[in-house]
Amino acid sequence: MDDAKREQYYVLFEKMVDNMVVVKDFSREDLVKTLSEICELFHIAKGVTEFYRSAGREKLGDGEVMVDYDNGRAEKVVLSKRVESMSGAIIKGTLYMANDDFLDNEELQKVDVMLRALMAFISRNRLSKAIVQVGFNDEMGYPNFRAFMRFLERAQDDGEISEYTAIRFNLKQFSVVNQDIGRDNADVAMRRYFHLVETVIEDDGIACRIGGDNFAAVFKKDLLGSILEILRGVPVVYDKEHRRRIYISASVGVYEIPGDFGDTHIREVMDRVSSAEAVAKRADTGYVIFYDAELRKQRDNMMRIRRMFPRALGNGEFVVYYQPKVNIRTGQIVGTEALCRWVRDGRVIPPMEFIPIIEQTTEICDLDFYVLDRACKDLRAWLDTHETGVRASVNLSRKHLLDTDLLEHILQIIDRNQVPHEYIEIELTETTTDVRFKDLRRVAQGLQQAGIRTSVDDFGMGYSSLNLIREIDWDVLKIDRSFLPKDEEAAGSITSIMFRHVVSMAQAMGLECIAEGVETENQIKCLLDNNCEIAQGFYFDKPLPKEEFEAKLEEGKYEINW
Ligand code: C2E
Ligand code: MG
Ligand code: MG
């Protein structure tokens, strides 16, 4: 080996090492080019590397064989190496020459070093690919949330984050799709749908599966239109043979990352698309919600309420109001509903402003138990001072259905306050999912067995109403005010017809009927005509502070003049 050749070898070897250690922009072509130059320098005719995941696979010939250089003159093997990596993978390297070419000792040694470096590189490279495969994909092969976050982090490091739009989406009614076409077909449909989105994004972003039928994506801003077209809904083929298709759509939260996003924590991207998506899921109109100033205000408000809640509960800021339930034939107060108010800095905050927020977590249960406890204390006091008590109903959020000891908790509170069970009524609203339905039945039955009355609140608002009263024995049906005919409505209007039949159906089933939201005398007449005797509504009174309600209770009845 002469000096010039040696010199050239060192240059090429260094180049090869350079090619192999660049991590980010690794180019296979550059490496192969360098290897070819080395082969030419040493008159190597052909270089082959092989990779097998295990010795077993090697035997079966099931691996990756790469011919990195071949000038067509290979006749004899001059060097052959086989190594087993720590993970049990097999890497082989073989070099060939023409019959009349040869390597001297020093040359052989240098080629040997080169080959070993190459094989070490291959084994490490394959290993990191395997790590990427495991670490950045989920069990079904979708890129996972970590891949999504890594993409965002890199975009932020490169100062390019504001070129992107992030979305989060949830497939609509996918449990129904699962039921309709079966899990396997639904998996195929989901994958195809996801692939449609991926195809639009190509290398300009990444789409990932967060879990279940929840996905997220980030992509260059100009792609949003095309992606939303897919997410608004498209038919997806799930059975190629029979050309069967199913319509899939999604609710979407969108966050167009602004120019001033800067160094804001990358987690914020996810928080923002998530809160937009949560609104999109609930929205009746449109399925796409953008994260904007209005939404930000809502979100800040929500966070504030969640943060303040525990202390407010401890401070006694929640107050129970009572709305009378009146027998409209006699004017008698026959019951009351306990409704909570948040009194903060002198302002009375109505439940619609905070219950839906607190209801997103199980903290609502603390509030409900608090209200039940207050109501029991008041009931006890009324029983002690008035000869006749009045039954009070308390609302229980659906979140309670998760609590397996719910019944014990309720009884504990009632018994601790020494209130006879017949004075308590629990109002529950309908639920839409089957699972919860079973829980609902269990809870309703348990309460009844303990002598506590149960009522269906807001009957007619949901979808499963009829099933609900067929499958579960309730004591009371509270007909939602949307079923109550408005004053200007003709007697033969659909609402009037439905109201009449709902009342008579409930009564035929032995349920007590109560109309909610009664505001006018005409509505009272309508109730009288239809034999619905109990009413709750502004016509008599709004929910009243405890003392005001007690004054009413003292009077015992409302004046009636019909
Ligand atoms: P809800 O249980 O259906 O309670 C009846 C609601 O209708 C009350 O609203 C009441 O003020 C209102 N209302 C009564 N009469 C009339 C009327 O004539 N016209 C109109 N327009 N409205 C009338 P409120 O007190 O604002 O409570 C709203 C909802 O918040 C309740 O609906 C209930 O679902 C929930 N809520 C209230 N307190 C609690 C609680 O302690 N726990 C839970 N989980 N939910 C509660
Ligand atoms: Mg209620
Ligand atoms: Mg109601």
Write a structural description.
With 562 residues, the chain is of the alpha/beta class. The chain folds into three domains: 3-135, Beta-Lactamase, CATH 3.30.450; 145-301, Alpha-Beta Plaits (2-Layer Sandwich), CATH 3.30.70.270; 318-552, TIM Barrel (Alpha-Beta Barrel). The chain contains 18 helices and 21 strands. It has helices spanning 3-21, 28-41, 55-60, 105-135, 145-157, 174-181, 183-201, 224-231, 267-282, 293-314, 355-358, 363-385, 406-416, 434-449, 465-471, 494-508, 521-529, 546-555, and strands at residues 46-52, 64-70, 76-84, 90-97, 164-171, 205-211, 214-220, 234-239, 244-248, 250-256, 288-290, 318-327, 333-344, 347-349, 391-395, 424-429, 453-459, 476-479, 512-516, 534-536, 544-545. Helix 1 packs antiparallel against helix 2, helix 1 (3-21) packs parallel to helix 4 and helix 6 crosses helix 7. It is elongated and about 120 Å long. The mean pLDDT is 91. Residues 457-458, 478, 516 line the site of one magnesium ion.
Properties at a glance:
Alpha-Beta Plaits, 8-stranded mixed β-barrel, 5-stranded mixed beta sheet, 23% strand, binds magnesium ion, 562 residues, binds ligand C2E, alpha/beta
Helicity range: 40-55%
User: What radius of gyration results from the CA coordinates?
Assistant: 36 Å
- Assembly type of the chains comes to single chain
Provide the spatial order of strands within the biggest beta sheet. Answer: 12-13-15-16-17-18-19-20
User: How many H/I helical runs?
Assistant: 18
Global morphology: elongated
Which stretches of 5+ consecutive residues score pLDDT under 50? none
For the record, the CATH architecture of the largest domain stands as Alpha-Beta Barrel
Beta-strand proportion: 15-25%
> What is the residue-mean pLDDT, rounded to a whole number?
91
Q: What compounds are bound to the protein?
A: ligand C2E, magnesium ion
Q: Please, how many domains?
A: 3
The CATH C-level name of the largest domain is: Alpha Beta
The tally of strands reads: 21
Q: What can be said about the biggest beta sheet? A: 8 strands, mixed, barrel
Distance between the termini: 121 Å
